[in-house]
Amino acid sequence: MFNKSPRPENQEAETLQAEETQAIEMEDDNSSAAQSQPSEGAGEDYQGKYQLLQEQFTRLAADFDNYRKRVRDEQESLVKYGAQKSVMELLPVLDNLDRATASLSENSDPKVLFKSFSLVQKQLLDGLDAMGVKKIQAVGQPFDPQFHEAVNQMPSAEFPEGTVMYEAQSGYQLHDKVIRPAMVVVSTGSADGAAVEPPQTAEDERQPAENRANPFRK
């Protein structure tokens, strides 16, 4: 048998094809490398954007820090000076009280003194009312644990059962919030079981304090 050797023309064709394939692969590799690595101009563009964002972040951080300090200062000022308006409302009352105290003497007329201090009391209540502080109605009102705090219970021929018959300490509310309930004595009704009509509380409130019902007065 005879060994067949490749023809020269076939071998040359295969060599050319292999070279062309290798050249194409090298071009693809160079193209991929060029795409994966940014150009020098693109790198400078990214660096500029980074610096811009860094400057914006620094400005925002400084603005927020200034805002936080300003809010803290305002809160401290509110806590420290928040009562200024209320104090200004009460200073005239203190002035009149000082005048009344300065006019006191051993020979002062009790009626004049009572009238003077009653006017001071009214001015004080008016000042508190301007700030939203109101006195809780108690005497003659049905006992309400939301507004009243019972300190005792007593029978009464004047007040029906469950009605406030005496106010031991006044209660107050700020707008719609009770800041101090009224300390009261509550009636348990008549001792003999007879029905009791409620008193005229509105008129009773207008009477001098010494004329109002007081279960502790002998």
Task: For the structure shown, list the relevant keywords.
alpha+beta; three-stranded mixed beta sheet; 218 residues; Nucleotide Exchange Factor Grpe, Chain A, domain 2; 5 helices
Structure description:
The structure is a single chain. With 218 residues, this protein is an alpha+beta fold. Among the domains are: 81-131; 134-205, Roll (Nucleotide Exchange Factor Grpe, Chain A, domain 2), CATH 2.30.22.10. The chain has helices at residues 8-36, 40-81, 84-102, 110-130, 201-206; strands at 133-135, 148-154, 164-169, 172-174, 177-180, 182-187. Strands 1-4-5 form a 3-stranded antiparallel β-sheet. The radius of gyration is 47 Å and the shape is elongated. The N and C termini lie far apart (153 Å).
Total DSSP helices? 5
Tell me about the largest β-sheet. Answer: 3 strands, antiparallel
| Quaternary class | single chain
Show unreliable segments.
Answer: 201-218
Q: Output the helix-strand order.
A: HHHHEEEEEEH
Strand order of the largest sheet: 1-4-5
Taken from the alpha-carbon principal axes, the silhouette is elongated
Tell me which CATH architecture of the domain at 134-205 applies here: Roll
**What fraction of residues sit in β-strands?**
5-15%
How far apart are the termini?
153 Å
The amount of helix comes to 40-55%
Report the C-alpha radius of gyration, rounded. Answer: 47 Å
What is the tally of beta strands? 6
